[in-house]
Amino acid sequence: MEDVFRFADDLGPLKLVHIHRSSVGLKAVVAIDNVACGPAIGGVRMAPDVSTEEAFRLARAMTFKNAAAGLPHGGGKSVIFADPKMPLSDKEQLIRGFAAAIADLKEYIPGPDMGTDELAMGWIKDEIGRAVGLPREIGGIPLDEIGATGFGLVAAIDLAREHIGLSLTGARVVVQGFGSVGQHAARFLAEKGAVLVAASDTSGTIVDEGGLDLAVLVALKAEGRALHDHSRGRKLGMEAAIDVPCDIWIPAARPDVIHGDNVARLHTRIVAEGANIPLSGEAEQVLAGRGVLVLPDFIANAGGVICAAAEYRGETEGAALVSINEKIRANTKAVLDEVRRTGGLPRTAATSLAVERVHRAMRTRRWDAPPG
Ligand code: NAD
């Protein structure tokens, strides 16, 4: 009994729902963390090795991300215990079964995450009338296609560079994880005059201090090929992206890539966290001590969810981009002003900003009085 409540604190989770539907082999967990700001938006993750704890931790991260972004949405997340590579017809059955099971959880709006995509969100919308990250044909804004998260990341970088007196013209950029977020971030930075000097994917790192040809690399990836297939540049191992000196370092691959053991290898002025939790707390502390500005994930990579919230309100693609730019610039400024005032870490300032917003929203709710 107590075990079910082991995550419980002042903020949530409001509901942790375990779903079992044997007819379609469905096992899933929905974590609705906090809905004081509005209905929870959060992705549906499908993988064989997910857990209740993962669902809760991701839901909490969404509470902070949505509040920090100033969205009228709380945080939620769901996990489905299954292999996303199953035949499409089986996947459709499973997702539709999941959708029917969450029909009454009206304070949760599902979106895409690892193992689910726009099509899956289309099936959920068809079943229960609510989902974000939809196909364009049914009112969706294709956030990976337009590069919503990369666009937001560059808005954060552009604001932050003023803080440290860095010009983007000629600024050297390294992208770890040349996928959707990494490519779009590199593209928007290049439009502002920055130069991509290294990029990595699972094939390894490609380096050219004189500047890589971004368009060629993007075309290569669009063909499903690896960065190491490119004929120019030095080819190094996957880890080498950490060692290339630069002005802006963008982790856009996996969590936990920079920690106490490798942070000394990083030589940059800004780290813009495209991936979620790419740096350990220790690494963020060490970098702050060296005067490196780290832009925390849930402030800098919120472009995707700001776009999803705009889609939910029925806004256009153009309005979504305006909203991403405005919100991320304002929130980055609020975080950096607080860092300047307190001398603390950007992540600490960002977390206070998010928690304060959630508490303010909780004061408006009859059943959600915040502590104090
Ligand atoms: P993606 O799958 O399109 O790209 C990931 C890229 O990273 C791939 O090119 C892959 O080859 C590479 N990669 C994987 N492991 C690597 C490693 N150890 N070293 C170097 N490269 C590696 O994914 P994405 O949508 O671009 O997301 C990237 C990260 O950003 C993820 O952590 C995701 O959770 C996070 N994120 C994404 C969004 C979004 O809108 N897509 C929003 C917020 C956060």
Q: Would you give an account of this structure?
A:
Helices cover 40% and strands 17% of the residues. Strand 11 (270-272), helix 8 and strand 12 form a beta-alpha-beta unit. The strands form two sheets. It has a seven-stranded mixed β-sheet. Strands 1-2-4-3-5 form a five-stranded mixed β-sheet. The protein contains twelve helices and twelve strands. It is an alpha/beta fold and 372 residues long. It has helices at residues 52-68, 88-101, 118-128, 143-146, 148-164, 180-191, 214-222, 281-289, 297-300, 303-312, 317-342, 346-362, and strands at residues 15-21, 26-34, 40-47, 75-81, 108-112, 172-176, 195-201, 204-207, 234-236, 248-251, 270-272, 293-295. The two termini are 28 Å apart. Helix 2 packs across helix 3, helix 5 (148-164) packs parallel to helix 11 (317-342) and helix 10 (303-312) crosses helix 11 (317-342). The structure holds nicotinamide-adenine-dinucleotide.
Entry summary:
The protein has about 375 residues and is an alpha/beta fold. The protein has helices at about 50-70, 90-100, 120-130, 145, 150-165, 180-190, 215-220, 280-290, 295-300, 305-310, 315-340, 345-360; strands at about 15-20, 25-35, 40-45, 75-80, 110, 170-175, 195-200, 205, 235, 250, 270, 295. The protein has a 7-stranded mixed beta sheet with strand order 9-8-7-6-10-11-12. It has a 5-stranded mixed beta sheet with strand order 1-2-4-3-5.
